[in-house]
Amino acid sequence: MKLLFIQSAAPHGSISAQEGLDALLMGSAFSECSVLFTNEGVLQLIQNQAPDELGTKNFSLTFGALRDYGVSQIFCRQSSMQRYGLNASDCVIDVEVVNDDVIRQLLNEHDKVHNF
Amino acid sequence: MKFSIVVYGAPYSSEGCLSALKFAESVITNGHEIVRVFFYQDGVYTANVLIAPPQDEIDISQAWGQFGIDHDIELIACIASCLRRGILDETEASRYEKRSDNLRAGFTISGLGQLIDASLNADRVVTFGA
User: Does A29 touch chain B (CB under 8 A)?
Assistant: First the structure.
């Protein structure tokens, strides 16, 4: 069974991104998981975040562990990256930037989708 | 068909919480099965027995708890989400030395693994967002 986790929330405006990541890590322990960053969710991947002054946790560091958890398919939506002026090289981890046609395929080939 | 239902929205703040209940009732009415209902993020506030809405409004927490009991359906509230938001059963209240617990009957506090398990064992996962 293949699970797709979609991260579409900005990193520190709510706890959605952090709790979504927790769910993804748990999912990877039981099943094959992929993750797609889209909309404001792409902002989660920006390097050198310093949310300490906000009093929130810098969970972007945890993304580095995704491959160790067996999450090898990490996608970013191209139009969202463009919207925020981001390139793959701006991200804390290696990501595959994909267009909406590919995203359509991803949605088809995964059995369940969890949106965060 | 086997459904798992996931609720992210808090009662009253989000319509999703009540829509999820209406959907769950329809699933049962139409002869389908619910594997589990998993409350995550602000959805765990649904399990707060201290919720006391005005008399002319539905008590969403009570309605969910009763639905779980009536149909013997697991209502799981994520432990990490619960602890952050002050939803505690007797065990957790004692563990964290809090003066009271507030988990409604019908709900169980358990781990995120229950979300994944619910996802793997259902034909459909239907999520009600915040």
Answer: yes
